[in-house]
Amino acid sequence: MDYENLLVEREGAVAVITLNRPKVLNALSPALIAELTQVLDGFDSEPVVGAAVLTGGPKVFAAGADIADMADRTPVEQVQRDQTGRWSKVTSFTKPLIAAVNGYALGGGCELALMCDLIIAGDSARFGQPEINLGIIPGAGGTQRWPRTAGKYVAMEVNLGGQPIKAQRAYQLGLVNRVVPAEVTVRVAVQLAQRLASKAPLAARLAKEAVNQSLELPLKEGLAAERKNFYFLFATEDQKEGMHAFLEKRPAEFKGR
Ligand code: CAA
């Protein structure tokens, strides 16, 4: 299927979604976000897809929400169309989602990367929240996910100063998993996604859910939620297969059941 704002491919068990508005540095228009959430929804219910990579391609990830689309909006319009509320659908994707970031990931672009489960950054990557320079603040998680990842002081620097940070610093802060040469960012992300896609799908889903819950729940409740998922997985064929394959010294064949 063709999309106006995305390129969508499959590499085996991995869906590769490329933001594709190069003339405006992949500015995230409502139409783009609508397509993105639709595509993710589709892959979520396709059993052959085990993981996805989200990228902007070799030059830029995304320079933020589309300023031309927002400039003259009224608050009422913003509420009615729930501009950034719709983006949160990205976080309902239940399979591993890897951001492959080259160049600018600014404003909503940075927030979109932070919604993913892992981030592979090219050495050209720049992460930042320049909204302050536009007289606004981030609206898709920038003030919330930065402190949870990089701590309050870095979050303040980024949100109040508006200056992006470079890939290497993002790595030191724990914001990205790996920094690689920009020409191989997407390749590395796809290889990693292939590895994640080969794991037991239900275990991957519940591991992702449990890690995300750790950011929202008190420790006691988080541990209880983890334990419930752990016990539940003993109801799956994949748990039996995984453990017996280990004991029989052979590779496991997971079926997602
Ligand atoms: N929205 C709409 N158009 C954008 C855009 C955006 N976020 N970012 C870049 N563009 C457009 C430019 O207007 C320009 O279009 P024209 O060729 O028609 O003039 C084109 O993309 C290329 O951009 P530049 O000429 O500016 O490229 P540059 O290399 O000189 O600068 C940049 C690159 C530093 C990223 C600069 O484009 C920039 O600062 N962009 C805006 C970044 C920003 O403020 N993002 C936050 C948006 S608000 C937000 O995201 C809110 C939220 O939380 C959801």
Give keywords.
six-stranded mixed beta sheet, single chain, binds acetoacetyl-coenzyme A, 9 strands, alpha/beta
Can you put this structure into words, describing what you see?
This protein has 257 residues and is an alpha/beta fold. Helices cover 43% and strands 15% of the residues. The chain has a 6-stranded mixed sheet with strand order 1-2-3-4-6-9, sandwiched between helices. A 3-stranded mixed sheet has the order 5-7-8. Helix 5 (142-150) packs antiparallel against helix 6 and helix 9 (201-214) runs antiparallel to helix 10. The longest helix has 15 residues, at 30-44. 37% of the residues are buried. Bound molecules: acetoacetyl-coenzyme A (CAA).
Described by strand count, sense and barrel closure, the largest sheet is: 6 strands, mixed
Shape: globular
The number of helices is 11
Instruction: Tell me the span between the first and last alpha carbons.
Output: 29 Å
Q: Evaluate the radius of gyration.
A: 19 Å
Measured by DSSP, the beta-strand proportion falls in 5-15%
Strand order of the largest sheet: 1-2-3-4-6-9
Mean pLDDT: 97
Structural class: alpha/beta
- Low-confidence sequence ranges: none
Cofactors, ions and other ligands in the entry: acetoacetyl-coenzyme A
SSE string, helix = H, strand = E? EEHEHHEEHEEHHEHEHHHH
Count of DSSP strands = 9
Helix content: 40-55%
Keywords: Lyase
Family: Belongs to the enoyl-CoA hydratase/isomerase family.
GO molecular function, one term: hydro-lyase activity
Pfam families: ECH_1
